Amino acid sequence: MLPGKDWRAYGGEQRKASGLSRSDKVWLVLIVVAAVLIVVRVVPALRVAALTAELKAPWERVRRHAADTLGDTKHPRAVEPLIEALGDEDPRVRRMAATSLGQIKDTRAIGPLTEALGDDEPSVRAWTARALGRMGQTASIEPLGRMLDDEEPGVRAYGAEALGMIGGEEVMAPLVRALGDEDAGVRGHAAMVLGDTGERWAVPHLIGALDDADEHVRDRAAHALGETGDARAVSPLIQAFGDESARVRESVAWALGGMADERAVQPLIQGLSDEDDGPRQRAAYALGEIGDARAVQPLIGALTDDSWLVSYAATQALEQIGDPKGLEALRKHREQQETSR
């Protein structure tokens, strides 16, 4: 220890002497910021450059990986290489390039993707249509509408889906046309897409699809009408609750429950006696969603249904309605279950 100096004071001077000056701290911050910018900007660019080089590899698997991964980067420098990859000899590379361009959503790709709708490979045309749909540009509505005339049903279905992604009144005519497609899969897909749009203009067309010859289409139409929540669909759905297909009746019950319209209460109560447990279960849930006291006694009866799925749905419905009579019956039912174990 130095003479005449307190050791604590000496230590404080040492720390002060060895500390960074204000200008040093400023430089340190600038260095850190520069390092962060390098990581944020340079490293992704280097990754894109490496993947772009892979797109030129002689091995198809490597090119497919590069085309697929470039979309995840969302980097603008990936756009031009991916556009070039739309001309790759491997259709899987072209398909993945189209998908990645749809992920990046750079408008430079709209023209090349539109041209790729004429690819010889159906899967490329289908995924290109979806990519254009994801980009959401109204300029793509006309070329996507033409895809509804493609010779391949799968391509037509993807075209309808892409139009639904864009949405708006301009897609109405082509989607309605898709509801009349000769292929049931396309019609069902169109019904689903129309429901997803949530547009009121779609309701009359979906109501018409409840009479389709194919149960898959009727099922999709019922579900789509439930998505719209439009009261105009209640009466047609009630009528469709008598459909010969249990699958359709189940979707109808789901749709009616979501609409919570008291006109559906009595038909749904009758649905608790359906010959198939799927519609019975869904009818019980729907009655709980509507919450009408008229359903309490029938739901109490459904507690002892042969199907535990129906019984459980009735339990949930009674709890949801909250009527004292129903809750008391539910308590006794649970006591009996405990005693029988």
What does this structure look like?
The protein is an all-alpha fold and 341 residues long. It contains 20 helices and no strands. The longest helix has 33 residues. Helices cover 71% and strands 0% of the residues. It has a domain of 107 residues: Leucine-rich Repeat Variant, CATH 1.25.10.
Low-confidence stretches: 7-11
Largest pleated sheet: none
Spell the H/E element sequence: HHHHHHHHHHHHHHHHHHHH
Instruction: Give the radius of gyration.
Output: 31 Å
**Beta-strand share of residues:** under 5%
Share of helical residues: over 70%
Separation, N- and C-terminal Cα atoms? 85 Å
Task: Please state the second-level CATH architecture of the domain at 47-135 and 147-164.
Answer: Alpha Horseshoe
Query: DSSP helix count?
Result: 20
CATH class of the domain at 47-135 and 147-164: Mainly Alpha
Quick one: overall form? extended
Tell how many strands the DSSP assignment holds: 0
Going by CATH, the homologous superfamily of the domain at 47-135 and 147-164 would be Leucine-rich Repeat Variant
List the helices and strands and how they pair.
Blueprint: H1 7-18, H2 22-54, H3 60-73, H4 79-85, H5 91-104, H6 110-116, H7 122-135, H8 141-146, H9 153-166, H10 172-178, H11 184-197, H12 203-209, H13 215-228, H14 234-240, H15 246-259, H16 265-271, H17 277-290, H18 296-302, H19 308-321, H20 324-340
Helix pairs in contact: 2-3, 3-5, 4-5, 5-7, 6-7, 7-9, 9-11, 10-11, 11-13, 12-13, 13-15, 14-15, 15-17, 16-17, 17-19, 18-19, 18-20
